[in-house]
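Researcher: Structure for this, please.
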Amino acid sequence: MIQTLTVPLEKAGMRIDVFLTEACDMSRSYVQKLLKSQSVTVNGRTVKASYQTVPMDDVRVEAPDGVEPEIEAELMDLDILYEDEDVILINKPKGMVVHPAAGHYSGTLVNGLMAHCREQLSGINGIMRPGIVHRIDMDTTGVLIVCKNDRAHHSIAAQLKEHSVTRRYRAIVHGVIKEDRGCVDAPIGRHPADRKKMSVNEKNGRPAVTHYEVLKRFRQFTYIECVLETGRTHQIRVHMASIHHPLLGDKVYGPERCPFGLQGQTLHAGVLGFVHPGTGKYMEFEAPLPQYFEELLRKLEGM
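Model: Predicted structure, token format:
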């Protein structure tokens, strides 16, 4: 795989490894390996990781093509909320990865969908993500739409891009939110120091808007509903942490110690609404709160 890039004025003065990490969405360690193996040239010459970029630098990256593993179908007991010839709506459980990636080539939702739908999944996102038009985090539960053909995929993708898909989430956050409702309008991008995390990034982030409303206040926590205008990676988790109300159980963006021994963040994709790609009619689906979430609410009520 060969990529050619031109350094824009605003990226001048950056280390070349940092520039490529951001521009190519690669890990910094991998970029440094490419630099050491002389797989990166700037204006036709190899450079070290410490090289500082200059405006209009011509950067060429030659990375070896990765070999995608064969993904196998696996029989699973999927919680199907709705299904027709175009789409399938799944209530994803906690702990399930949506599609295969490094370290997760089996047990994912895609593995189960391949067994259930056989060949009826859109192919736009390749063999690793058939049918997947959007995703939710491994430890986030709730409703997810999967497309069975390319026509449906294009339709849902366009609605997501236009921000016309209804997405309502339920969450429990640290602290007591005083206002009844609010909005976080802050761009989200890769964390400047930790590539595995996202952050509010005014310089390099993409626009992101999250509306929230208080449903119930507890002594040390708040139960809220969030409505997304945009769909950035970890959006709700990053936005709520940015206003000092990280999600309960979120060890990435919140406290490392959780008082209830939870597996990841308390976040549930409760409602998903969209215009059906075949009928043109608006449809809305709701996934009930998972048992652990309801039990936690009862526990907080009694504290």
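Researcher: Any notable elements?
Model: DSSP finds six helices and 15 strands in the chain. The chain has three domains: 2-62, 71-162, 168-269+293-301.
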